[in-house]
């Protein structure tokens, strides 16, 4: 089974959703047959490559910070339950395109497992460590820790390799209807939006596995589709809404 996660390094709900999927996989008997791949999405493609405090960017964007602080408090509590120590006061706002480009390289040269390690490291850098995820030195260290070669990564970040491919993937995400992240796409067919509880993600994994087994067995007849309460066909049921992070997703 292949799970593609449309996600942005700048999305706190993507961090929560990733950890919840990891917990679900830990309880899923077929986890060793599941390939998890991250696909790029930018919530703020216009963001500067020069970092600034996230609180400053949010204040400029929303004005009244009361709702933002309330959302952060909720996220901090939910994150703690997943082992995430959110530190929104030290978090930086910066363009994430280069980070996505590095994640593209990680999948291409290190495989899905290497990319997953790097993604987790970048989310931790962004939301726990207050690091600048646009800084090449930060990216190199996280990439090497994830298993990539230092010289290769350094040279890669100095050029523009992968930029066109990542831009195409971002365009493709919007073309198929992804307007909020995280969005989890199972086998290119079933889409689940938002940082669902681990129990829900486990249910979806089981349902998709059952669908795939049914499709492989001609005696079983036509597939019936996964539970509409948690999964919809790709390109449908993607919530749009305000340019904000609430209720399990960050939307544009």
Give me a quick take on this structure.
Keywords: Isomerase. By secondary structure, this protein is α+β, with helices and mostly antiparallel strands. The chain has 9 helices and 10 strands.
Name its key features.
Glutaredoxin, five-stranded mixed sheet, alpha+beta, 252 residues, single chain, 10 strands, three-stranded antiparallel sheet
Can you lay out the helices and strands and say which pair or pack?
Elements: E1 2-7, H1 12-26, E2 35-40, E3 52-53, H2 54-62, H3 66-81, E4 92-93, H4 97-110, H5 112-127, H6 136-146, H7 150-158, H8 163-175, E5 180-181, E6 183-186, E7 190-193, H9 198-216, E8 232-233, E9 245-246, E10 249-251
Parallel strand pairs: 1-2
Antiparallel strand pairs: 1-6, 3-4, 5-10, 6-7, 7-8, 9-10
Helix pairs in contact: 1-5, 1-9, 4-5, 5-6, 6-7
Biased composition (Low complexity): 221-232
Protein name: Putative DsbA family dithiol-disulfide isomerase
Region (Disordered): 213-242
